[in-house]
């Protein structure tokens, strides 16, 4: 018994020592693998690609539409406004998720869903137009949007940034060159941003003849409506600075405003004409301009 016990103890120590060696070896291997991960990524990906700062830009739909029938105008305008809302929402989410997600996060979580929403909205526009005239084709190619990152912004800014780059993040290479997202100082984002300014329209009240008492209430109501339409257009102009293509203001703001004013001015002329001679030439006052 006295000889057997030491032998047993030796075997037990040998087994335990061997198991410990295996565990230790595994730990060393795993540690080496983990330690090698950052070196392989060179700090650029670090197990995931972060969502980049920038601005999402989309093809302008309004400028690609044919003449919109009056019967489809309301539906088309409503969906054009929705397209802008979708872009705003996507850019908001992009800004909130900087530094998050995997290598395909922006494409899968922001650009992909945005493309699907735009495709449905654009299709509704085409259907609305097609109810009265030929349904436009090829608009589906305008659904996809792109992400303009800081690098693209630097190229687009050219010399326009001047000394501004020094005040941005990482000398303009941080978030969209430090001068607004996607080179906002260039004034030509994705083919021409909506410019800040004020919409001004010809005064209608001063061009009216004497208004009969029987028409005064209706004329005053429509004159007030003309002012409301201008305010709404200016509000939309301010809300869409930095968005849209080169014809965005004309097609999405000034064009619809002209149509609304034409209808309102015509109602004023009709109201006056019920009692006296209907004024003519007022339709020339419908068009408005953008003053920068």
Which features does this protein show?
292 residues, mainly alpha, two-stranded antiparallel ribbon, two-stranded antiparallel sheet, 6 helices, 52% helix, 5% strand
Please, could you describe this protein's structure?
- Helix content is 52%, strand content 5%.
- With 292 residues, the protein is mostly helical.
- The strands form 2 sheets. Strands 1-2 form a two-stranded antiparallel ribbon. It has a two-stranded antiparallel ribbon with strand order 3-4.
- It is built from 6 helices and 4 strands; from the N terminus they run H-E-H-H-E-H-E-H-H-E.
- The longest helix is centred in the first third of the chain and has 38 residues, at 4-41.
- It has helices at 4-41, 70-96, 105-130, 150-157, 213-239, 248-273; strands spanning 54-57, 146-149, 198-200, 289-291.
Q: What is the topology, as strand order, of the major beta sheet?
A: 1-2
| Distance between the amino and carboxyl termini | 106 Å
Order of helices and strands: HEHHEHEHHE
Structural class: mainly alpha
Average residue pLDDT:
73
pLDDT < 50 runs, ≥5 residues? 19-52, 151-195
């Amino acid at each position: 018994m006295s000889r057997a016990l030491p032998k047993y103890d030796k075997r037990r120590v040998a087994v335990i020592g061997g198991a410990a060696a295996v565990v230790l070896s595994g730990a060393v291997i795993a540690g080496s693998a983990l330690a090698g991960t950052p070196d392989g990524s060179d700090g650029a990906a670090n197990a995931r690609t972060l969502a980049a700062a920038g601005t999402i830009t989309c093809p302008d739909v309004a400028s690609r539409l044919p003449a919109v029938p009056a019967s489809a105008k309301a539906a088309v305008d409503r969906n054009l406004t929705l397209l802008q809302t979708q872009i705003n929402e996507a850019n908001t989410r992009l800004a909130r998720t900087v530094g998050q997600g995997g290598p395909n996060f922006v494409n899968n979580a922001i650009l992909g869903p945005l493309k699907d929403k735009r495709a449905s909205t654009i299709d509704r526009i085409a259907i609305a137009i097609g109810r009265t005239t030929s349904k436009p084709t090829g608009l589906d190619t305008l659904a996809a949007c792109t992400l303009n990152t800081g690098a693209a912004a630097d190229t687009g800014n050219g010399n326009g940034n001047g000394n501004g780059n020094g005040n941005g993040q990482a000398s303009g290479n941080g978030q969209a060159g430090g001068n607004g997202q996607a080179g906002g100082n260039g004034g030509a984002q994705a083919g021409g941003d909506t410019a800040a300014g004020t919409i001004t329209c010809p005064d209608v009240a001063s061009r009216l003849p004497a208004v009969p008492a029987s028409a005064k209430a209706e004329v005053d109501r429509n004159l007030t409506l003309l002012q409301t339409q201008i305010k709404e257009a200016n509000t939309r102009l301010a809300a869409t600075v930095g968005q849209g293509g080169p014809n965005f203001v004309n097609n999405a703001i000034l064009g619809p405003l002209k149509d609304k004013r034409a209808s309102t001015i015509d109602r004023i002329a009709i109201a006056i004409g019920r009692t006296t001679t209907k004024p003519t030439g007022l339709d020339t006052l419908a068009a408005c301009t953008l003053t920068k």
